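**Protein record**
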Amino acid sequence: DSGGSGFSLAATALPERRRPGGGRPRYEVVRELGAEEVRWFYREDRKTWKPFIGYDSLRIELAFRALGSGGGGGGAGEPAAVEPVCVRSGLYEVDVASAESYPVYWNQTEKIPVMRGQWFIDGTWQPLEEEESNLIEQEHLNRFKGQQLQESFDMEISKPVDGKEAIHSLKLSRNHVDWHSVDEVYLYSDATTSKIARTVTQKLGFSKASSSGTRLHRGYVEEATLEDKPPQTSHIVFVVHGIGQKMDQGRIIKNTAMMRDTARKVEEKYFSNLATHVEFLPVEWRSKLTLDGDTVDSITPDKVRGLRDMLNSSAMDIMYYTSPLYRDELVKGLQQELNRLYSLFCSRNPEFEEKGGKVSIVSHSLGCVITYDIMTGWNPVRLYEQLLQKEEEEELEERWMSYEEQRLLEELYVTKQRLREIEERLHELKASTISKPPVLKFKVENFFCMGSPLAVFLALRGIRPGTSGSQDHILPRTICNRLLNIFHPTDPVAYRLEPLILKHYSNISPVQIHWYNTANPLPYEHMKPSFLNPTKEATSAPDSESASAAPSPTTSPVMVRRHYGESITNIGKASILGAASIGKGLGGMLFSRFGRSSATPQTMETGKDGPEGDEKKATTVGTPPLPHSSSGFLEPTVELEHRIDFELREGLVESRYWSAVTSHTAYWSSLDIALFLLTFMYKQDQEETDKSNLDTL
């Protein structure tokens, strides 16, 4: 309770403190504004002022009062005495002395101005500029302090201001303020045009106040309470950028902000009953790296610089990553930034680890490959050493050579073997005495890849499909609980991961991501696999015998999506065609993606609209294309433990060619993706809560 703010008032339920005119009942006598009546605001990107939530505003106001400014401004304080105030779910801090806010977890050149609101414009509840506000407040207290307020709070309805004379007036630089009563205050612009308009309308019989005055309110529309606070963060998501960040270093911060804002909307709509919260943090690792300095820039011809800048900043990062000289720098850059952010978050939120807080990673583009390599510890040097050893062994066996050369080569081979053994023993001794810290300071719960080329990197490293449907084949569950690969159907950089685990999944369509506004969507784990191209011979089929000639729900091809006029439900029922399969060249890939309309559209029996229809469809879709039996039906075989490939539904009217250009960056503001991410994160949290409740019982 500082400066007579009275937290007992703050604890009162908000709805009772509002009135139809937008204002609120005040104290019975005019006195200085309480801390809960003042509201602090912040402004980003030169847009309108946004109010801080009650919990933040109240704490900023108390810090402001501690600074020694008092209720109405003026008077210098000791800036060093006041700690910065943590706001906006802990992502920002406010320095009250400089009236600025800045992010905690990333660097930002532009500071965010903050402002103390005392007087507000009717209707919009935007604050008056601080200088004017302070002058009006000072004048109001000088003239009316200690006076009774009118008891009826609907006076603007019962006694209109029309025709009332001002009982007090204050001249400001460009405006003036009239008090028609203690609680009826109007602001007028003193610009010449306003004066002319005011004179004309007054002659026509309109009052001065209604013609051009702006009604002002003292104190914000709702009181700030400490109860108006965000839920505690139970899950943090590190957002890792991919290629091209050299071109615009602030882009990952903007992209993460888009993703965070979109997720907030989804949380409010679907998860508002949960007392937990998912926080998104940008991982900006690229700008700290020096790499080649500006060598590549200096060898770029001038005339193509604009286009080349775009190419260099994206394609060059892939070239850097495949270069033995810079790969380590890229890996270390990302690894150190992830660990720095996690340590910083835990130091500011000590209860996060105590309460079993979880960490997921969302990576985009090349960021997926680097994140994967950090988690798995993949090292190209080891692969190269193995290849060299194999070559040496083959050379000893195959090539004709003199006795002396052979003897020396054998001696060299034995010495190298001995050297490796000594190195291994030394390594083991070191490992037993010094426990090596883990590469990452946290366990990854979910690894979401967006627009990811990871599959093609793995294919080129020699990973081939296996016989078990486990994620462990490419990413052990001990390292990361769940791997999910999200892509837009026309993203030219994205590849599928499932066919790298089980080959026949190249002929099974990726799971369709639900639209944000789908009513009662079928849970993802209940969605059955469906054909991508049933007419194509199954890759695992040993014979060429065709399946049943008559189309059945299990064999009829999926509907080609070119009927953009159809209802969302019908289009939603169509499965995906043409996702990039491993091993296709870029030309083939683009051809298969953009040449889809040449396929003959087949009619598909669609169930009734709505979720029941979807369920009906889900039960009629077939199992994966597998070796054929003599009966003509498909026999069941190995399925994936969990689906990994998830595909966004294409827009109803977007052009395929245009979306190929934009789709690689279209993930950040997608409501469908935000809902998808939160569905998986909240589902796990809910399952664990249910399990612990059962254990308690």
Residues 232-380+440-524+643-691 form one domain.
